[in-house]
Every structure is written in structure tokens, then in C-alpha cells.
Amino acid sequence: MFNIRTVRVVQVTVRLPVCPERVKNISMSGSAEIKCSVAFWYYRRMLLVIGLMLFGGLWFFYDGRVGWPQKNVAAVAKRAFEAAADGHDWSAFSANDEAFLDAAFVGGSDELNLVKKAHNDGGAPRPWSEYIQSSAGRGALQRINNENLLKEAYQAGTQGVMTWPEYARENDIPANKQEAKPESKHGQYGWESIENAFKGASKKREWAFYGASTGHKHWKVKDPVYHYSSEIKGQMWIANILWAMAVVTFFYMMVGSRRRLSADEDSLTSESGVRIPFSSVYEIDTRKWDKKGLAYLRYHNAEGAEKRAVIDDLKYKEGDEVLERVLSNFSGRLIEKTNDDGAP
């Protein structure tokens, strides 16, 4: 369950010279102009935003220019590898595979040669090193604990000269469960491990073992994802947009650094340079002051139109002093957040 603290918003009318309790710590007897320059926090915040945009742009740019193209080579190589394992020749694969066609490999390029090699290797018999790493190979070795015997059976299966019953009879191995006896040379169930190794030589090669054995980056991924050219262009667009936003934010920061917030004896000058007489202010909203340092002023301009100004204490140093001076010359509606007991 959530523990939610309720608040209520009250509206009070301030008729000075009575001053709100929270402004008593600052003496407002003086009438010297208060000039607020941009605070260090503003620059730190803006530079952090710019840095995140630049870093994000680099991230997307790297994916679009380097990361995803490299992953695509692995993805297409896997497709070529498995196509060969399924009995498809190179011409059939290269003419029909969507990812290969979208990648548009240049003839003779290193990437194309890697894909061709993966296709050739996929059509070759599975080597012993891949079988013994598979779950079937590890299980067979665990049951019989004789790698040389298993390897001999595997190599015999690779040659394709004999069937399993023929190999079993020649090597005095039970060919099936009915022939297996407890007193057999390899035990009652040892023949199963040897048969597994013999028949495992004719199984299709698996990318999970082949890709990892190549040492190429991204090839050890069991199922590499192909990113189409449209997706890569999208990455580059996002990178450029983030960099453009970083440039715009930088210029916005530079423009903002020249702005000032000030208050004299009779008026407030907003950061946009608009002079606001205290007498024209009819409402002040300080509900966001404690947490965000924001106070909103509503006033009537010279033409009588309703306008709004902001005092940002996080952006401007001594912004609190400006707010106190406005409050000390204010007679209108004050909106503030209070605790449940009514205390501000």
C-alpha cells in the first residue's frame, strides 16, 4: 500500500505591511536594486543535458555505422551456414535470402568472404570438437568416460562406410538394447554412448558451436538479429537529431546566460526584460517554490491584458531575495501549499 500525504491549497490575501512568516529572515528595509545573475546550477544542468544528448548521439551513430553492420555480418553468416547445412547451395541462398540481398555485400569484400566461408563450413561434416561440446557429446562422455573410444566411433560415422550394426559387430559392441548384457565389455548401457557418437557424426552442424569457434565479434551469439538498412538509417537519423538538439540547447544556454532577473523599489524586471510594477501583480503562486524553486506571478500589463512571469530560484542567484521583495510590496492573492494541520 502507498502512504499518501494529503495537502491542501489555500488562498490568502496579503495586506502589507504584514509580511509572511517565511520572509522574516531577510530584511527588506533597503531599497537597493537586486540584480540576479545566472547560477552555476543552471550551467551544470544544461551541460548535463547537452552531454547526455551528445553521448546518446554517439551511441546511435556507433550502432548505425559500426555495431549493427558488424552484427549483420554475423546474422547473414548464420543464415548462410544453416542454409548449407540444410543442403542449399550458394547460388540458391544468395539469390533468395532477404537479409543477404538487403545487406548488398560488395563482391570480394571481407564481409562477403566471411559469409561464403560460413556457407562452406555449414555444408561440411561436423568436426569432433563441435560434437564433444554439444549436450549429446557431453552426456555420452559422462556415461562412458572414454573419449578415445567415442572419437573412434565418431570418425567411423563420419566416413560413412559402415552402418551402426556393422560397426558394432566389428568392434564387439552391442548394437541394441536386446543384445546388451550386464557383463558386456562397456556395460549394459555403454553401447548407447558409442552409438550416439557414431550417429552424431551425420547430424547437422550447429551455429552455436561454430560461431563461437570462429573468434569473430558477435558470432558467438546464438541467434544474431539482422537489422535491415531502413533500421540503420533510422539510427543515423536519431543520432543527427540528438546532435542538433545538443547544438540548439547550447545556444539556448548561451542566450540564457545573458539574461538577468532584478527588482528595484517599485518593480520587478523579468528574465525576458519586461518591467512589472509591483502594483500590477494580483496573484503569486508559490506551491512549487520549496521543491523546484519556482514562483509564478500573474499581473496586468500596460494594456490591461493578463500576463504571467516566473521567478526561478534554481536558475538565478538571489532569486529568493527578489521573491521576498515582491511579497513585501504585494497586496493580492497568494497561493501556497500547506501541511494537513494548516501550517505552511
Secondary-structure topology with pairs:
Elements: E1 8-15, E2 34-36, H1 40-85, H2 90-96, H3 98-103, H4 110-122, H5 128-133, H6 135-144, H7 147-159, H8 164-170, H9 190-200, H10 207-214, H11 229-257, E3 261-263, E4 267-269, E5 275-277, E6 281-285, H12 289-292, E7 294-300, E8 306-312, H13 319-328, E9 331-338
Parallel strand pairs: 6-9
Antiparallel strand pairs: 1-9, 2-3, 3-4, 4-5, 6-7, 7-8
Describe the 3D structure:
The chain has 344 residues and is of the alpha+beta class. Helices cover 49% and strands 14% of the residues. It has 13 helices and 9 strands. It has helices at 40-85, 90-96, 98-103, 110-122, 128-133, 135-144, 147-159, 164-170, 190-200, 207-214, 229-257, 289-292, 319-328, and strands at 8-15, 34-36, 261-263, 267-269, 275-277, 281-285, 294-300, 306-312, 331-338. Strands 1-9-6-7-8 form a 5-stranded mixed β-sheet. A 4-stranded antiparallel β-sheet has the order 2-3-4-5, covered by helices on one side.
Can you tag this structure with a few keywords?
13 helices; 14% strand; 344 residues; PH-domain like; single chain
Measured on Cα atoms, how large is the radius of gyration? 39 Å
CATH topology of the largest domain: PH-domain like
| Helix/strand structural class | alpha+beta
Count of helical stretches: 13
CATH architecture of the largest domain: Roll
Q: Which residues sit in consecutive blocks of at least 5 with pLDDT less than 50?
A: 1-30
Number of strands: 9
**What does the overall shape look like?**
elongated
For the sheet with most strands, the description reads: 5 strands, mixed
Strand order of the largest sheet: 1-9-6-7-8
Q: How much β-strand is present in the residues? A: 5-15%
List the helices and strands in order. Answer: EEHHHHHHHHHHHEEEEHEEHE
Number of domains: 3
Highest CATH level, the class of the largest domain: Mainly Beta
